[in-house]
Design a protein that fits this description.
Strand 4 and strand 5 form a beta hairpin. The chain has one domain: Glycinamide Ribonucleotide Synthetase, Chain A, domain 4 (Alpha-Beta Complex). The chain has 93 residues and is mainly β. It has one helix and eight strands.
Length: 93
Amino acid sequence: MPGFGCIVFVVTGGYPEAYAEGDLINLGPVPPSVIVFHAGTRLEHGQLRTACGRVFSVAATGETLEEAVATAYKGVESIKFEKMFYRKDIARR
């Protein structure tokens, strides 16, 4: 069992204040050790769209903290939508 975990929140631009809703989301394949939790998404006419500020939580595990973080970011890279934002400094402080 892996010893470390990491979660990266993917939000819309402007969050937590004013933010757009309804942007089209392209969700590609994620690595097998990644779980993508939908938080602020909706399915509209067969298309995945943003529904609120916190859109996804991307979780990963690894034998080391560095591996867990790197794997979570690989999962984030599979997500694309306009004005997408996520912190790039997780576990670096």
